[in-house]
Write a structure and sequence with these properties.
Blueprint lengths: L1 H6 L20 H11 L12 E4 L4 E4 L10 H6 L7 H9 L7 E5 L5 E5 L1 H22 L3 H15 L25 H12 L3 E3 L7 H14 L6 E5 L4 H11 L5 E3 L7 H13 L4 E5 H5 L5 H24 L4 H23 L16 E5 L25 H17 L4 E4 L10 H9 L1 H6 L8
Parallel strand pairs: 5-10, 6-8, 6-9, 7-8, 9-10
Antiparallel strand pairs: 1-2, 3-4
């Protein structure tokens, strides 16, 4: 018991927790209370002006924000302006947006267009800052509220102690006796064997190749998996096989050459993966992409994505969101719909082996930064490095990771890269979606804005 207590993370107190408006783990009732107390909402309007939150799109809304009398000092002077009252600014802040004020003007052709009013925008943004400061002061003021929020935060985000893995006891049966693995390599292999999905984010030259090869062989020997598939850069398949055999001279490998994935031979090669008993199969990234996921699975996934985007578009339109964002999302929806239509119309090629039929239950992805452009929906504007485009390769990988999570209980995927974060703040979130989707769902963080 004492050892367990000692291992628990220390609870953070209020001074160590940064709470800002729009944090989705804070209960709506608290935001409502803050709004009523700070803006001194008149009693007869308290049932009309309500704060609402949609967990599906991570969207906040303040209903009845226009019902406030224009003589209300708190709403139009202290925390708001003539052009944007405090309730509207609060809603924008909850949705992590900077408030902007536009004027509608007619151009020479009589077309209406919106132009940013810099003076009014600056004024409104000062009020926005005042509201954020007021919230920061308000949130910890009440001792009961402070205790409850601290407890909730610690319970959600500070209750997991990352396991430390020690691989010093592992006996690598069949490994080349001339080669000795370093301590960090053994620990990483222990992580793959005992932990769930794993990211090996070691720098170049730290020995990721040997870690993955040894983990695959040990997993098979211990009965943790039946067949491992290695996805590596196209030009490195042979080099990978040589390294693998240097470590395990008796390993039974199947290695794809460029010829194996020509249209005429692909079917035969996939059949060999499915029917053979190999320790590991090594193929290139672009070849991996050509092995399809079954039509039924693709259909379900595409329909889910379309539904998600339609909900997001609807809530953006309801909130009169940025036209640009809506157009971007419409474009994505159309491309998904086109994919779905194409999927439904193609003749069923029953003789193509699907990914599920290969019998692969452990996937090792080398240079995983190749699949970092996974689709992302966010309400935030003008934040550098938020790309909402997706690549075919990434959505294909995401589908296959979801399948492996399903059959292995979240233990079947290993990513390795020397550059886990290269140029965008979304990349770690993307890696988490590939490898820790279950954890994100459990904490209510599947949405990027959360």
């Amino acid at each position: 018991m004492a050892a367990l207590e000692k291992a628990q993370p220390k609870d953070l107190d209020a001074s160590e927790i940064d709470v800002r408006l729009g944090a989705t783990w804070i209960d709506v009732d608290y935001i409502q209370k803050f709004m009523e107390e700070t803006f001194e909402t008149p009693f007869y309007l308290r049932s009309t002006i309500e704060v609402k939150f949609s967990s599906f799109t991570a969207e906040w809304q303040v209903t009845g924000k226009t019902r406030v009398n224009s003589h209300d000092v708190a709403a139009y002077v202290t925390y708001g302006t003539d052009r944007a009252n405090a309730y509207r600014i609060l809603e924008e802040s909850l949705n992590l947006k900077d408030i902007r004020i536009y004027d509608t003007v007619e151009d020479a052709d009589g077309k209406q267009k919106r132009i940013l009013n810099k003076k009014e925008t600056t004024l409104a943004q000062q009020k926005q800052q005042a509201i954020k400061d007021a919230f920061r002061d308000w949130v910890w003021k009440d001792p009961y509220r402070r205790e409850e929020l601290c407890h909730k935060y610690n319970e959600l985000f500070n209750s997991t102690r990352p396991r430390e893995y020690d691989g010093s006891h592992i006996h690598f049966v069949g490994m080349n006796p001339e080669i000795t693995l370093r301590e960090h390599q053994k620990n990483a292999i222990a992580h793959i064997l005992y932990g769930g999905n794993t990211l090996l984010a070691h720098e170049v030259g730290a020995g990721k190749t040997f870690e993955m090869a040894a983990a695959a062989m040990e997993s098979k020997r211990l009965g943790l998996c039946q067949k491992s598939l290695f996805v590596v850069p196209n030009h490195l398949t042979i080099q990978w096989a040589n390294e693998f055999l240097r470590l395990y001279p008796s390993a039974k490998l199947l290695v794809a050459t460029r010829k194996d994935f020509e249209a005429s031979r692909r079917k035969k090669f996939c059949a060999r993966i499915a029917t053979g008993d190999y320790d590991a199969v090594i193929i290139g990234h672009s070849q991996f992409e050509r092995i399809p996921v079954s039509t039924e699975r693709q259909q379900i996934q595409l329909e889910d994505q379309i539904e998600e985007i339609e909900d997001a578009i609807a809530s953006m339109k309801y909130q009169r969101g940025e036209n640009f964002t809506i157009k971007q999302m419409e474009k994505t929806r159309r491309s998904l719909q086109a994919k779905l239509d194409k999927l439904m119309s193609t003749e069923r090629k029953d003789d193509v082996v699907t990914f599920e039929q290969l019998g692969v239950d452990r996937l090792f992805v080398n240079e995983s930064q190749y699949v970092k452009n996974l689709f992302l929906y966010t309400k935030m504007r003008n934040v550098a490095g938020l790309s909402t485009s997706e690549s075919q390769r990434s959505s294909d990988m995401f589908m296959k990771c979801r399948y492996l999570d399903e059959i292995t209980g979240g233990r079947g995927v290993v990513f390795a890269t020397g550059t886990p974060v290269s140029n965008s703040m979304t990349e770690l979130y993307t890696v988490m979606r590939y490898l820790q989707y279950g954890s994100l769902q459990k904490m209510g963080l599947t949405h990027f804005d959360c």
